[in-house]
Amino acid sequence: MFVNVPVKDLHRSKSFYTALGFDYFGMTDDMASVIVSERTQIMLLTEPTFAGYARNEVADPAKTTQAILVLGLDDQEQVDELLGKAVAAGAEELGEPVTAGGRYQRHFADPDGHHWSALCIAAPGS
């Protein structure tokens, strides 16, 4: 899966995702491919490049929410670690941790305002 997100400043966004510990598959002057897993990448596209692919006007993620992007992790420690890295790299923590329904989840907005969640789910019967 490739999730495409518009970014205002590609250099700032690349620095942010590098600080979270992600590597890159490829980069050009107007886009970068962040490797999340073997089959999942986040495509950071400058707003003009993103607009060239979009059928509708590009929304401002700091003012609207089109999607909540969730990163599944193995345990609560990894969730807390990722949130700590995100905040240290310029993200804004959103709300309180969620511990209902067998999950542990924390939310943040990246420097462009995209809503992200770090999540781990307890095994049934845990």
From TrEMBL:
Domain of life: Bacteria
Pfam entry (one): Glyoxalase
PROSITE patterns (alphabetical): VOC
Domain VOC: from-to ranges: 1-121
Protein name per Swiss-Prot or TrEMBL: Glyoxalase
Organism: Nonomuraea cavernae
